[in-house]
Automatic annotation (TrEMBL):
It comes from the Eukaryota. TPR repeats lie at residues 199-232. This is Inactive TPR repeat-containing thioredoxin TTL3-like. Residues 28-41, 200-209 have a biased composition (Basic and acidic residues). GO terms for cellular component: cytoplasm.
Amino acid sequence: MSHSRRLSLEPAIDSTARSFRDSLTLQRGDDFNKPDFRELDLGSPVSTLMPRVSSSSSAAATPTSSSGSSGSVPDKPSVKSHSGEITRSGMPATRNLKPGHRRSSSTGTPLIFSGSSFYSGASHSSGATSAASPSPTVLPAGNICPSGRILKTGMATRTSTRAETLCTGTGNYGHGNVVRSGGGIAGKTNHAAANGETPEELKRSGNDMYRRGRFTEALSLYDRAISLSPENASYRSNRAAALTALRRLGEAVKECLEAVRVDPSYSRAHQRLASLYLRLGEAENARRHLCYSGQCPDQADLQRLQTLEKHLRRCWEARKIGDWRTAIKETDAAIANGADSSPQLVACKAEALLRLNQLEESDFCLSCIPRLDHHHHQSQAKLFGMVAEAYVLCIQGQVDMALGRFENGVVKAERASMLDQTNPELLSVLNNVKTVVKARTRGNELFSSGRYSEASVAYGDGLEHDGSNSVLYCNRAACWYKLGLWEKSVEDCNQALKIHASYIKALLRRAASYGKLGRWEDAVRDYEFVRRELPGDSEVAESLERAKLALSQESKSLGGFFNNEVGAVTTLDKFKNSVSLPGVSVFHFKSSSNRKCEEISPYVNTLCLRYPLVHFFMVDVEESLALAKAESIRKVPTFKMYKNGDKVKEMICPSHQFLEDSIKQLL
């Protein structure tokens, strides 16, 4: 049997609604005079009342089953009169009551229920024998039954354990009705009935709100209907539809499961569950409810399920061989096919991006994972042989580790392992995560104590277990920098940036290493990138300006142009290139911590402007220890002068006048 693919709201007539409808149905002939002994629990202390209609209009007074089951508004809606009867529009509110429902004085004094017996005040005064020994088959008259039920024969001897109170009366029910006190669902039921609300009416109102797109109001109405009739599967199924429209899919699944529990053969709830599981990417659960009890599934839903299963299978195959681009393609196709709220499929794409060293994209992908509420549990759903929720946590933990969020990574890896304790892949990830964190902690401690060589070894141990951890590469690059191994520092920074392209620390460290190597063009490029990322950072701005100045001096000097700025030389290679320049070159070996160097440096700048045909260079011996050692610099300030590549003079702590005179002699 084929089911409709559209998940419309299906009203259903429960036993209560049918009883209520039947109690209002007009009867003819002898049947009209027979009392209704069916037990009706309408959630109200008031027995049903019958409208009086003429014989010509009796058929119109009967509610049709179609209006009761569809939830639509009848052609001529019922209205309530001041006494509580339901009448048709345009009909008088007069009554023609059944026996046992009379209130007029002509019928005599009504029987009053008191504990385990009935009595009538009027019969005692008249001496009627029937009042002295009331028959157990006599029903109470009027709206005086404490439970709101018409008692069956033989039920008159039951006693109530609840206190009875007199209702204050309303326009519908009148003053003095005997009701039971109480709260909870029973109290809500009485309140709803006192307002003329039945579960079916609430459901119909909810359906109307749903059709008008007012899903929150529809949900509230379905909630009230369920409070009156909690074991009605259609109410819960409709509530699931409203929750789905509000994108609360986890709650919708829970409500559909409850509807199936109430009515295991309820096809609409199974169909709605299958649709929800398809959106959640849980193909196995979707198939179980789409093909429940051997039923023939809707062909459109079956096609969607088969397509989802195909993409999931291809994702698994691509993941096993490391074909991450295909994994991304198949994941996107599954999401586009309808699995738009699947956390595990989004995690699958994030894993592929992580393996392709697109860390920012992977992290952003994980931030878009649908947040399912706590009502939804994925314990039965699996992906790649892992519990789906555990798989999601596993990928989140690995991305956290790659971004340096080590504590978060450990927590998520541990949670994943707890959710699926027998999965070997999750156990392996957890062990690697713990090892990497331990190595990183050890390396940080050694670096802080100045033991840079040992720290580099510790970071290397961590990289053996996680070769895609950008933080460990960057930390080891810091060790190489401190040890003066700038080429190795650049190499590790390159590895970190290959994994995490916008890693600011790695960019700054590489730029500083480039500066030590005299590769100012490369240094300027890195500083400019960081400057765009951190426009308000003054230190980055200053570093960029220094690198640009050094680059400018280098280009002018090496290009054979004379200039009026003192150039900086940091490496032995650059020193040799500068010495070989044509003309006169003056090298000032200095230390920023030396007072005499600081006193003479401004004068050197003055000479640079005064003699534009001379190349002036500055060498900071603290930053360029290798160069200072190669040139045998033992005291600062020291000046060395070259002409056409040949050394012609060397001076230690010269006076201003002697320095200038020496330059003049070389021109």
